[in-house]
Structure formats: structure tokens, C-alpha cells
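Entry 12.
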Amino acid sequence: MRLLSLLSLLLLSLHLQAADYPKREMRAVWMATIYGMDWPTRPAVNESGRRQQQQELCDKLDMLRSCNFNTVFLQVRLRGDLIYPSAIEPFNSVFTGRLGGNPGYDPLAFAIDECHKRNLECHAWIVTYPVGTAAAAGRNRRSVPRQRPDLCKLYNGEWYMDPGLPGTSDYLYELVEELIEGYDVDGVHFDYIRYPDLADGFPDAATYSRYGRSKSLREWREDNIYRTVERIYHMVKSQKPWIQVSSSPLGKYSRINIVPNAGQTGLSVYQDAQRWLHDEIHDFVAPMLYFKDMFFYPFVKNWMQYKSNRHFVAGLAPYRMLPPDNWPADEISRQINYLRAVNADGIAFFRGAQIFRNAKGIRDSLQNHYFRYPALLPPLSWLSDERPPAPLNLSVSVEGNQIRLAWEVSASSQAEPASFTVYASPGPWVDTENPVNILATGLRRQEARFDISTDIEQGYTFRITASDRYHIESSPSKDVYYYISPYIK
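Predicted 3D structure (C-alpha cells):
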């Protein structure tokens, strides 16, 4: 990372106010593994192919880091199959070209490690109830419909786990439990945690007759989804309370007065996500707000109004800049501007491909403007309110063509800080509340190195903060002033 260019931006940005760029903002992207859409784009049949798969991911994560993203939603469960070894479900074919084929390495463990090296959180994106087409399930002897036909219903040519069966909730609970026990994921992120489209025709009459008791069909179906979310949330928090539980509900929660003809909403498919927020069994939602104009802004306002002291991260649709929709590039820009104006907690893009391919210049726009400076992740203040101790003994030195910062953590700390943030500013003082002074964040080591040019002559002040796994930031370290000069001091 080049310090000169970063510090030059600081010099050019002294006139900016903190409100121009948020200090705290989730900046996420959904990376789809299904059909090789985002990663991997081709299967591997030998060691060379495996190395190419791994390098492809590293290259894409490097792109995200260069744009100051801080979160990846990585699809780990596709349609009743996985991208990691499991005692419950088989490997998807995307890594090897063969259903159940072991790719010779653990893609999820590799991805988590590479994300963390680049200061990115990795959330495990789980497609919840859909478990494959009739044809695909028939070919795979370990598919969920063949292994657990008692839990599945065929509907419009697709297999779905029946949310009304207690065994379905048990199955998903065990799947998530296995995941969090085996992997250092930062979040569990549910997709399609609802009934299918045109849900009124879903063939669960026998299930309702057996388990519905005195509830209406609507109340019973909403409770089925709720019960699974609630059980998993409390299980995760009992084992690793810092892991965030979230979902990507439909962007339109319900019909609202200003948009009475909203079409399908979350409540249409028995997905009461605002209730999950209100009842504190979610840490954030990332609704799929893949619309514009009157189908976007009023629904953002609705989510903001009812997020219930949890986080609201807006899911945006850069894929709609491509045919057949052909949105202009400034449509996404306007949406980002609005989200920041209403103090949304973050932005997520569906999906990675449009960022990696720089569709209509979107990556350039993020890198040069909207995500120009790094951002800390929003604090999970409902999980912890204790600030970690400030880093100690910050030192700054030049080694060759690099400037090196090193620091220590308090020996009295109950737990090691999860990450660190470096602040820098020209002159004798640095304001750690101004986001333009963030040089780097999410660092997981007690050291940072930046390339410099020793041709410059300028003094800078540095400070370091620590953050725990709940994203609670410490007070800053003591200032260190360092004068960079081509001349001997």
C-alpha cells in the first residue's frame, strides 16, 4: 500500500467535513458460487487448476480491498450442497465439475483466511429452503430430497424444505451449528428464508393440518420461519456471540400507503423480517432493494423506520445496469447518496461480477469517490458496550522505501483486540472522528507497513485504535509525530 498517495489524499481533503464520507459503514458484496457466477469461474481437475481457483479469489479480494470494501457475503450453501466438507451435505460440483467431488482443499477455510488477510469480514451466505431442481436432485444420491424426502416438497419443478416441519428447523440448526463450530466466520447470512414465490399454492396442507393447531395459515407460516431464525440466533450467540446473524429479505417488506401496488412483498411469502429485528433475533438485514424510483426510496424509509436499533444495510442492484434493464450508472450513485443522507448502516452490492468487471465504471466510482476512504464497521452495541483498551507504545520508523508502524496491546486486556485502525494527518494533530484521516482499518496484526517516496518532505501525526469483534472502538493511542524528509535529520 502506498503511503504517499494516501497521505496526498489527506492533504487534498482537509476541507471536507466528516459527514461527506461516513466513518462507519458496512460495504459489502455478495459473491455467488452457484453456477460459477462469481467464484470459481471454472472447475479444477488437477493441482494447477486448484491454484488457479485460489489465485482467482485472491485477485478478486484484492480488487475489493483496493476499493475499501470491508465485508464479503460468500455463498457457502447453494441448493442443499456446500463449498466445504460436511457430515451433513455434499460438495457442490462448482469446484470440481462433479457432484460431491472433493476439490482437494477447503474453499471456505481458504476464503476466510484470504479475506482476513485483506481486512475483510467473511459472512457465510446460506440459501435456506430451496434444495434444487427435480432433475438435479435426482442425479445426486446425497441430495436433500433423496436423503430426507420427509422434509421436502416439490413445487413448480423445484424442491423446497418444508418450513412447517419441525425436522426442517432441526436440520438447518444442525447445519449452522456445524458451520460455526468449524469455521471462523464473521457472520451467518440467510438468503431465501421464506416460502416460495406464489406461496399460497405451496403443498403443505398436510403439515398445516398436523401442526397448525388453532393458528391461521398466515400466522402459522410466519411463525415457522420465525422459529427457525430464533433458534439459530440464540444458538449462535451462546457459542460465538460475536458472529452476526443476518438475512437478505425481499426489499419491499409490505405494501405501504404511498405505494399501494408494490407487487410481491416479504409478507406475501410469510417473511416478517421487521419482526425479527424488533424481537432482537437478527443483528442486521440487507434487504434486496433491487428497484428504483418509487419502488426504492419509500421502502428504504420504511426499513429505516422499523429497524429497531439493529442495522439496516441496503442491497443494491448493479446487475441492473446491464441488459435488459440498462440502468444508467448514476442510478446507483443517487441511491448511495440517499442512503447516506438517511444514515443507513451500510451498502451491499449484488453481485460481485459487476464490481470485478467495472460495469459502467462502478468500481472506478466507488474507488475514487464513494469508498475513497476506508470505513470502520458499525458497532454491534447491543452485544457489548465495553470499549477495548487503547493500543500502547506506538512507534514509527522508515525502513528502506517503507514506513513502519508498530504498537502493543494492554497486558490487562481480557481479550485480544480483533483489529486495528490507523489514523494519519498532516501536521501536529489528527482528528480520529474525521473519516478522511483513516489510513487503514480492519488490520489484524500489531504492525502496518506502507510504501513511501523519500522525496517528499512533510510531517504527519499518527494514532492507532483497537476494535473488538463487536466493532467497538477503543480510545486512540498517544500521538506520534513523524517528519518524512529526503534529508538527514
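Annotation: The two ends are 25 Å apart (CA to CA). The chain has two domains: 25-370, 392-484.
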